[in-house]
Design a protein that fits this description.
By secondary structure, the protein is an alpha/beta fold. The protein is built from eleven helices and twelve strands. It has an eight-stranded mixed beta sheet with strand order 6-7-8-3-9-10-12-11, sandwiched between helices. It has a four-stranded antiparallel beta sheet with strand order 2-1-4-5, with helices on one face. The longest helix is centred in the middle third of the chain and has 18 residues, at about 190-205. The chain is globular. The model has no long low-confidence stretch (mean pLDDT about 90). The structure holds iron/sulfur cluster. Iron/sulfur cluster binds near residues 296 and 304.
Length: about 325
């Protein structure tokens, strides 16, 4: 459905080029929930913006490719890339951004934010506002959301309701790909659970692809079919979520999973000490070397390649070089 090959996307800043996404390759499949995990600043939100074809200066694609399979009006599938993907926002691909508090326009009623989201060429737009209102009202009822929200301004809604409205906005034209950036951040646990249920239920009903970025491995464990772990702009592990949680290969993934709280386990969770490298001048070898408990001499100089260790389970770490060769 979506293919990335050796994709490099950098921010051009006055201090230098920030190598936010650096040589990332993977496929996103139809009808799956793909999780993208990693600490803040690892490149996961940048990657999501690129997938949405929302590439604006100072961000630019340096090299590599990104393409999507897009079914045209005759049902034929054609390949489209950056510049063309944005022409199909909302209908083919939609984006649920981070921070519902600041994303919704504060001076526009929710109803009008739905009107604005319908592309000019869409039959609903051609049919007019009444048709859009009817469709949105029916959709909110389907989602068991109060239709009164349509007359509200964003500041009149709770944080959880704003996030639900964003999910409804991102899905009401039934796009084939939904991208969600930290959809549960800053929400209490009960609301978080409701949002995750809403997202996964919609994905199941629409049989589309849901890509969820979250720093919270617990979120990925609950909802994703496959998982991509990013560290300092690199993809370090990628595979079925169950396989990754059962048998994480990369030391960084192991530490992320070990830091998760477990029911009944009262021992203190240990975070990952140290900080990720500066992405303006990252180290030449493994970018995790300075924090890795299993670091070897050559790790600081040689960059590990991404290799398939088990069927559909990839890792980028010198610990597995001999095993894979
Ligand atoms: Fe650790 Fe070396 Fe593997 Fe990097 S390549 S994660 S430093 S063992």
């Amino acid at each position: 459905m979506l293919r990335l090959r050796e994709l490099k996307c950098y921010y051009d800043t006055t201090r230098g080029l920030v190598q936010a996404v650096d040589g990332v390759s993977f496929d996103i499949l139809p009808d799956e929930v793909l999780g993208i995990a990693g600490e803040s600043g690892c490149g996961k939100s940048t990657l999501l913006k690129v997938l949405y074809d929302y590439i604006q200066p100072p961000l630019h694609i340096v090299s590599g490719s990104y393409e999507a399979d897009f079914p045209d009006s005759n049902g034929k599938v054609k390949t489209i890339g950056p510049g063309a993907i944005r022409e199909h926002w909302w209908e083919f691909i939609s984006y649920i951004p981070q921070g519902s508090m600041s994303v919704l326009n504060p001076v526009i009623r929710i109803e009008n934010q739905f009107f604005d989201a319908v592309p000019k060429s869409h039959p609903l737009k051609v049919a007019g506002k009444t048709a859009i209102r009817e469709r949105v009202t029916a959709y909110l009822k389907e989602l068991e959301l109060p239709v009164e929200v349509l007359r509200s301004y964003p500041h009149q809604l709770s944080g959880g309701m704003k996030q639900r409205v964003l999910v409804a906005l991102g899905t009401f034209l039934h796009p084939q790909i939904v991208l969600a950036d930290e959809p549960t951040t800053a929400l209490d646990v009960v609301v978080q659970k409701g949002i995750l249920l809403m997202l996964t239920e919609l994905q199941r009903q629409m049989e589309n692809t849901l890509v969820v970025v979250s720093h919270d491995m617990g979120v990925h464990y609950q909802i994703s079919d496959r998982l991509a772990i990013m560290y300092a702009g690199k993809l370090v592990e990628y595979g079925p979520t169950e396989a990754i949680f059962d048998n994480p290969f990369h030391p960084y993934t192991q530490m992320l999973i070990q830091s998760l709280p477990r029911v009944g386990d009262r021992s203190q969770r240990v975070g990952i000490s140290g900080r990720p490298p500066n992405l303006i001048d990252p180290p030449s070898g493994c970018r995790f070397a300075a924090r890795c408990p299993k670091v070897m001499d050559h790790c600081a100089h040689q960059e590990p390649a991404l290799m398939e260790i088990e069927p559909d389970h990839y890792v980028s770490c010198h610990l597995y070089g001999a095993r894979a060769s």
